[in-house]
Amino acid sequence: MTIREKIEGFESLTLIKEASFSSKTKGREKSEEQDHIRTCYMVDRDRILHCKSFRRLKHKTQVFIKTSSDHYRTRLTHTLEVSQIARTIAVGIGLNEYLVEAITLGHDLGHVAFAHMGEEVLNEFLKDGFRHNEQSVRVVKRLEKEGRGLNLCFEVIDGIEHHSGFTNGIAKAATLEGQVVRYSDKMAYVNHDIDDSIRAGLLREDEIPKDIINILGKTNSERINILVTDCIENTLNNIKKGDIKVSLSDEVGDAMTKLRSFMFKKVYLGDILKIERDKAKFVLRHVIEYFMKHPEEMPNIYQQISEQEGLERAVADYAAGMSDDYCLNMFNKIYVPKFVIY
């Protein structure tokens, strides 16, 4: 018996029957020999962790607060916080922690430079629009490893694809683990963005509506603890009643939705950051415009995509993969005059 088989046997003893068992995965698009030590979801976690797109998250904005401080979140630290929250919920429910970990580490690989501002630019640029969750899937299936992709399991890709959105009309992930990630993503960013906004002087603690604080708590740790506990207890209660889904209780879920709406109005889309948002859009639009005229200057992988799927798609893929710093450096290289000594 291999170590992998021992781990799979341990899953059969510790996970609830509604969980995603590694031995029952729907598999990969390209079949592979199984690892002797790691389960399929552990392999996927490692592939994501070691890919170039994951490393670029460290220089991608979470909320557009360009600062020299080390204490503001980036896409990378956001991803790690989502992973911690989701793994806690998964263990509390009895779900597959390795699958949850793989999904969380890959869920934001498709996010653009300059956060939501970059996403708005690409959404206007592409005729079919741009959605970062779909781009994350494209990264792991089409763009990584010079176009070969990471060949991840169905359950991981499905979880990445369905992590976004927070309305009842949005399609859910096929697994409970994927549904956990969807909730954990919101729990993480709403709370840590409050923390960052207060630190940046964009928000005061007393501005958060009192009815929300009364339900979710006053501090970041209180809110996360209440949200995580509520999600575990409510989901277990759902399953007990035969309703196989992840959810929050009505009271806590409504409070989190209100808190998220408050942050969109006050910080994400508020007037306070409008000037910086417009600057970011200006930079990215002009970088995109340049490569539409000079596709031969893009890396080979994107030139190949241009030939196979069209120039617009190739430029969008290149722009979406840029970190904030890379995009700014590219803009300076293209458009800012250099000093020449005669």
Structure overview:
GO terms for molecular function: hydrolase activity. This is Deoxyguanosinetriphosphate triphosphohydrolase-like protein. It comes from Clostridium fungisolvens. InterPro entries: Diverse_Catalytic_Enzymes, HD/PDEase_dom, HD_domain, PHydrolase_assoc_dom. It is a single chain. With 342 residues, the chain is mainly alpha-helical. The protein has one domain: Hypothetical protein af1432 (Orthogonal Bundle). The protein contains 16 helices and no strands. The protein is globular and about 75 Å long. It starts with a helix and ends in a 7-residue tail after the last helix. The mean pLDDT is 94.
Observed structural traits:
single chain, 342 residues, mainly alpha, Hypothetical protein af1432, 16 helices, globular, HD_domain, HD/PDEase_dom
The CA-CA distance between the termini, in Å, is 74 Å
Count of discrete structural domains: 1
The number of helical runs is 16
Q: CATH superfamily name?
A: Hypothetical protein af1432
Strand content: under 5%
Structural shape: globular
Q: Any idea of the CATH topology?
A: Hypothetical protein af1432
Rg result: 21 Å
CATH architectural arrangement: Orthogonal Bundle
**Which CATH top level class fits?**
Mainly Alpha
**What about the largest sheet?**
none
In total, the number of strands is: 0
What is this structure's SSE topology?
Layout: H1 3-14, H2 40-49, H3 52-56, H4 75-93, H5 97-106, H6 115-125, H7 132-143, H8 154-161, H9 176-199, H10 210-216, H11 220-240, H12 250-268, H13 274-293, H14 300-309, H15 311-321, H16 324-335
Helix pairs in contact: 2-5, 4-5, 4-9, 4-11, 5-8, 5-9, 6-13, 6-15, 7-8, 8-9, 9-11, 9-12, 10-12, 13-15, 13-16, 14-15
